[in-house]
Write the structure tokens for this entry.
Amino acid sequence: MATLDVAGVTKSFGTTQVLHGVDLTVADGEMIVIVGASGCGKSTLLRIVAGLETATTGRISIAGRDVTGLEPADRDIAMVFQNYALYPHMTVGQNMAYGLRIRGLPKPEIAQRVTEAATLLGIESLLDRRPRQLSGGQRQRVAMGRAIVREPKLFLFDEPLSNLDAKLRVQMRAEIRRLQRRLGVTSLFVTHDQTEAMTLGDRLVVMHAGHAAQVATPMEVWARPADTYVAGFIGSPAMNFLAGTLADAGQAVALAAGPVLRFADGPRPGPEGLPLTIGIRPEHIEAGASGLTLPLDLVEPLGSETVLHGRLPNGEALTVKLAGPAPAGPAIQVTLPAAALHVFDAASGKRLDR
Amino acid sequence: MKKTLFKGTALPLLLLAPQLAVTCVFFLWPAGAAIWQSVLQEDPWGTRSEFVGLRNFAEVLVEPEWRGAALNTLVFSTSVAVLAMGTALFLAVQADKSIRGANLYKTLLIWPYAVAPAVAAVLWLFLFHPSIGLIGRALNQAGLDWDYKLNGGQAMTLVIIAAAWKQVSYNFIFFLAGLQSIPKSVLEAAAIDGARPVRRFWTIIFPLLSPTSFFLLVVNLVYAFFDTFGVIHALTGGGPGKATETLIYKVYVEGVQNVNLGSSAAQSVILMVIVIALTAVQFRFIERKVHY
């Protein structure tokens, strides 16, 4: 069990810089999920921690030991790959024992550890099979088993669930979480899936264009996104963004769509007329008998709830999620509760707090 | 797979005809003629022939010269296969690393395959000739007493190197393709599991290449058995003495030089049986050996 420190890591491939200085501290036993769209640098960051890529600048320490220049073999880590990367010519048992044999562990101990891990994962009946005889979910378990038997300081997961079908993915997600809790191994999990990120992580790192846009707990990322990118990335359907300006000595925002809304949690700093971006989640918008008129152009019934898409009179798109069935009629009246507003500086995209 | 259904048999037969014609004219007919010839005894002028059954075979198999040629063939083909495959594998592993100029490197390595056997032999002759060859003279100056025209062991070494050199390109292409089909993540997983490059090679890469290696082994043996006539003929002519006379070369000596057609035919039939056996082994094992 160990801590992980990533300090000022940058990475360039030729003239293209993909990581612009990432800092991250992972506590002992913590599960950190790195989430972001493709090309944000999340896999590169994981591979740098693994030692499969070399950072252009910056340092990586595991359990207080600087491993920046070390080979993957010397870092005492285990990794689960997206395509599982099982050794095709070895049985499941041999796959799991490979790393232990390299370390020169005595045979009885290897056998014992493999059996334990296999039992934990429910694959003890598969030990003599070869990877090609296994289903996707079983391969995934073997890959996990291969990581577990090593008893490494750090687990790395590189989108391990994205090759599974939807149902299995949910099941494996829960299993990984339970296993990680039980073993208490410090883990780094890369994914592009926000549901995986929210459910798996003790904390999230939301990556955007080679930066860590926000590092926080899932609930904090959801409730207080650090910038408009994070706000739009986490949450489904995505947060609405409306243009506005600071008004009433910082006490309120004058929306381009018309209404002036008073901030529920106090004034924001800044000059009168400062351009703002106001975020509000679709599920926080209230429909009623009065308020802004929202002509609808698409209604998506989801059973227990309904997602409505429309355009405000000033042309801004607005998505509303309502509990229950869709309302009748071509338009609804909506109000934006002040307590649910997220205030961002329009120029920088950063969150503006009191 | 898309299946095409034909009405009637005329069109399919017509479409198959060129391939069937080639097989008949260049394989079945000469093979049949060889088998027929192998049970006849004919005088050198071809005026009289007599049916002798399997006597030609019986005589060939007890002949010490044939046995000597068989032993030469064994040494020669094994060495060629090992040398050609070993070199090719080494080069392919190097080429598989992402290096500057990798494409140029690969292209250059493939060239020798386009060189005709006799031309390749002449090239090696100019290198290793004891008095005019670049390397041959250097060896003599170093006091190694190099003369493959007198020393049978040296002659064998030379034809092995020349024959192997021609085959390296072919093996290289297959090994490189085999290496590139190994998923990169599998090697990365091994690296994370603690395996160093040498260990990764022997425990992951080499086993995963084994279907390729086995296929190449058979191809190389067949090559060394049958396609090396040109190299031997141009370099040593089977000499000195009979030191580099392989089975295929002896077929030529017996049939063309000694005009003993029955014996020559019997020897070529034996070779035919060997290659059929090798091919059969290849098909049987390739199906069983490939484990993924």
